[in-house]
TrEMBL record:
Organism field: Aquipluma nitroreducens
Domain of life according to the entry: Bacteria
Residue ranges of domain Beta-lactamase-related in the record: 40-182
Coiled-coil region list: none
Annotated protein name in UniProt: Beta-lactamase
UniProt cross-references to InterPro entries, sorted A to Z: Beta-lactam-related (IPR001466), Beta-lactam/transpept-like (IPR012338), Diverse_Enzym_Activities (IPR050789)
Length: 325
């Protein structure tokens, strides 16, 4: 397993031919990526770059938004804060946010733990995207309903209050600088979004492939990371701690309460876990293949944009499989 240096721009590569991959399938993959409004695409195997492509004027030095793929950064830094004994995810969120941080009846608010924020099971009204107290109203008891919403952003306040530092300061110290990422957080009124270069997204993907370890340093406790990529509740088996999980019996998607049978991405490896953001920002991690795949860009289908999961994933994996199998 190779890890690029935290300083400098050198990153080892590996040729497609040395892996025995199908060279004839590369151009159809690139054509598909261009057609689907991709700005950058990267494949790592054992940490080495096998494919690195930029389209539509995007370059290796341009930053782009992760959208909800950045939720996995928040989950990871929450785990780091826990291993430093600054917080406990099983404690109620109000231990770190103060009482009456929602508009729920106090007994219902007190049911919400930090873990519920990590698993999208806080029971709040998920139809309102702006995370302000009047919008944080009661729908169900915490832990009884899975609903994808922006309430996860309160985790940045949990970490800030627990650490006594601004969230971005703590994040930069404990994660960003440790693995040589660039980028910055944009704390908007509705969305909290990370922006970085493609290679920085790939660095985080490489950390995730190695279960929280970077080179010889365990950045986030392996047991916490394993929890993050394991079914986190019994409602949506395809969701961990802000990570999406393939290979489960069924799944739910944002903005719906419907349950869909089958794998999240049928064409993808069953052991894949993924960071998924609006407009098809993606980090796919595949332990069985020692592989990380990155996609950044505009929405693959601007007429049918989704917060996270979309049909794009399955179509993309059909093209990737033609290359790697």
């Amino acid at each position: 397993m190779y890890f690029p240096s935290n300083t400098g721009s050198i990153w080892e590569t590996k040729s497609l031919s040395s892996l025995g991959w199908n060279q004839n399938a590369i151009q159809p993959l690139k054509d598909f990526l261009i057609q689907k409004n991709t700005k950058s695409f990267m494949i790592l195997v054992n940490g080495r770059i096998v494919m690195e492509e930029y389209f539509n004027g995007h370059t290796a030095t341009n930053t782009w938004e992760w959208n909800s793929a950045g939720k996995t950064l928040v989950a990871t830094i929450t785990g780091i804060a826990q291993q430093e004994n600054l917080l406990n995810i099983n404690n109620k969120a109000s231990d770190y946010l103060g009482a009456e941080w929602t508009s729920m009846p106090l007994p219902k608010e007190n049911l919400i733990t930090v873990k519920h924020l990590l698993t999208m099971t806080s029971g709040n009204d998920d139809t309102k995207q702006l995370v302000i107290k009047p919008n944080l109203t009661y729908v169900a008891d915490a832990g009884t309903r899975w609903a994808y919403s922006n309430i996860f952003q309160k985790l940045t306040d949990v970490v800030a209050n627990a650490s006594g530092k601004p969230f971005e300061t703590y994040f930069n110290e404990k994660l960003k600088s440790k693995i040589g990422m660039d980028g910055y957080w944009n704390f908007g009124l509705i969305f909290t979004i990370y922006h970085s270069t493609t290679k920085s997204m790939a660095r985080f993907g490489l950390l995730a492939l190695n279960k929280g370890k970077w080179n010889n340093e365990q950045i986030v406790n392996e047991s916490f990371f394993n929890e993050s990529i394991t079914t986190s509740q019994n409602i949506n088996p395809s969701y961990g701690y802000l990570w999406w999980l393939n290979g489960k019996t069924n799944f739910m998607i944002p903005n719906e309460q419907a349950v869909y049978q089958g794998f999240l991405v049928p064409n993808a490896p069953v052991d894949m876990y993924a960071a998924m953001g609006a407009n098809d920002q993606r980090i796919y991690v595949i332990p069985s293949k020692k592989m990380v795949v990155i996609r950044m860009g505009d929405a693959s289908d601007p007429t049918n944009s989704n917060f996270a999961v979309s049909g794009f994933d399955n179509a993309l994996w059909e093209k990737i499989n033609a290359v790697i199998n």
